[in-house]
Design a protein that fits this description.
The protein has seven helices and no strands. It is an all-alpha fold. It has two domains: about 70 residues, RNA polymerase sigma factor, region 2, helix turn helix motif (Rna Polymerase Sigma Factor, Chain: A, Orthogonal Bundle), CATH 1.10.1740; about 80 residues, Winged helix-like DNA-binding domain superfamily/Winged helix DNA-binding domain (Arc Repressor Mutant, subunit A), CATH 1.10.10.10. α2 packs across α3, α3 crosses α6 and α6 packs across α7.
């Protein structure tokens, strides 16, 4: 299960608001929590169980961060896949920062569905089962999340162009 879902759990944690510096630890905590409840995991429902557990871990990480009021340096663990030119690395870093900024501003219920559908490529049926909500609710949240995402990106694009022109 670890080999199959390690990257998935890390992405869910990262996209659900876990500070980058704590993602690795929370991945381990997620798998430990699942291992402790292995008897509760239905066959063929491992991914859903891991998703629920990872979302709870991310919520805990966000609450902890809010209590500590610390600022984490996300640059410390920039992951590079293959040799990139400095300009490519900078562009990739900026794009990730913008994505993280947009996602962080979205309501959690919208962000979760958006990330699972658009980034993790889960189907609406899988998301509904994992989050234990009706498929109609998933569809509604996804539609609202897409609109919210577009509006936030447009707002960022407008402010970025205004700053560059100044």
């Amino acid at each position: 299960m670890v080999d199959r879902y390690l990257d998935f759990v890390a992405r869910v944690l990262r996209n659900a608001g876990t500070p980058e510096a704590e993602v690795d630890d929370d991945v381990q905590r997620t798998f430990i929590a699942v291992a402790n409840r292995l008897d509760d995991v239905r066959p063929d429902a491992e991914k859903s169980f891991l998703l629920q557990t990872a979302l709870r871990m991310a919520a805990h990480a966000r609450r902890t961060l809010a209590r500590r009021r610390e600022v984490h340096d996300s640059d410390a663990q920039l992951r590079i896949q293959g040799p990139l030119q400095p300009e490519q690395m900078l562009d990739q870093k900026r794009a990730r920062e913008l994505l993280d900024e947009v996602l962080a501003e979205m309501a959690l219920e919208l962000r979760t569905v958006f990330v699972l559908y658009e980034l993790e490529e889960l189907s609406m049926t899988e998301i509904a089962a994992a989050l234990r909500i009706p498929q109609g609710t998933v569809a509604s949240r996804l539609r609202r999340a897409r609109a919210d995402f577009r509006d936030r990106v447009r707002a960022l694009s407008g402010s970025t162009h205004a700053e560059v022109g100044s």
